[in-house]
Amino acid sequence: LPTGLYKKVLVILHDSILPHMNEPTLMMDFLTVAYGIGGAISLLALNGLFILIHQHNLEYPDFYKKLYSLLDPSIYHVKYRARFFHLADLFLSSSHLPAYLVAAFIKRLSRLALTAPPESLLMVIPFICNLFRRHPACRVLVHRPNGPEDMSEDPYIMEEEEPSESRALESSLWEIQSLQNHYHPEVAKAAAILNQSLSEIEDDISGLLELSAYELFDKEVKKKAVDVPLEYEQVRGLFGKKNDIFAEHFALV
User: Fold this and answer.
1) Nearest 5 degrees, angle CA 39-CA 150-CA 100?
2) CB 3.0–4.6 Å: which of 10, 58, 160, 219 could bond 52 by disulfide?
3) Residues with Cβ within 8 Å of residue 99, at least 6 apart in sequence
4) Locate the CCAAT-binding factor domain: which residues (predicted)?
5) What is the pTM of this model?
């Protein structure tokens, strides 16, 4: 099928087509093929696949491997970002997932976050924190004081397609520590939460999934400005300060 037609079908498949089919399992081959195409088409196929896996017992052995491969720099910029992270949150919610798999997702999301825009970072940092709450075995990524300080010493293999071979559990989250010095103060504040012990209650990320750069800018503009004093001595005229060198050489006439 043409790419445009794939997108039109997959956008409405999960809520306008599958619920009205007598045998939704007939769409298994179509969705698995679409999921393997890559890019935006794979992201859109996730909705339909989720319904078949959750409600119709579809087995997809390489599902998480493919989901892991979808994590590339564009994931923080695509139009369907909110939909992807909503479903990724559901897929990674099971406590039965192995620690190496969740650690691979955490590490890859953190590495890609180094080039992500602020509105995406304010969403993905709470997302990562929720993964730590669900999977305590992955907290070793945070509590490793002697971990690598740069990419060249990091044992994590970013190019590895198989999560079990990525060596994510041997690494540390130096990327999130780097974001604590981010130019946007809200991002730096969000990243600093990993310096403290996390609460047991998960963060609600539903309101952050569709956060846009415009909303972020609008929020900053509407903040109440704080008056910053620029002088510690009260000014008494143009050259009125005590021991002012200008007053010794200039005068107003």
Assistant:
1) 55
2) 58
3) 135, 137, 138, 169
4) 42-191
5) 0.77
